[in-house]
Amino acid sequence: MIQQKKINVERILRVNRVGAWRIEIEDGKAPRFYADAVMDELLGIQGEISPEERFTFHRARVHPDDMQLFLEYSDKLSETKSEIVYRYIHPTFGEMFVRCSGIRDRSVVDGISIMGIHQDISETVRLEKEKEAERRLAELNDTLRKEKITGRLLQRTAGNAKLWCPCIYNSRA
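The structure corresponding to this sequence follows.
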């Protein structure tokens, strides 16, 4: 029998910039946001913080232009599994792109409990934007090359027209 090496899940998540979280909501209480160490790093939290403070800290840093989408996602999570990509304003690193996925924990009956992952995909988004810019540049170069070729053909055609019908180019006609 082949022995497998022990998988270091925490290291895999850290290297891939994936944090785990859980949010609990009960009537009459402030929402509580629990997170592993990687999640706190991704949020920009240093030191101890209460689950209620973490909830407020995170919400205050969702990019304003993405807040409505984020709130719709949050509402959807109480019913079904969902995923979102949004911008988060990290207190040290600034704007980052985040993929967040979550699902309701139906085993919890006192209130609502949602658990999920939060992944920094900023580098992936940057690479995709670079690829898109390179693709657009290649298309533009191709278009310009074709226009240059077409322009030369038109010049040649116009030159040949002068040979065939000089009266077209005679200003006195």
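Residues 122-164 form the longest helix (43 residues).
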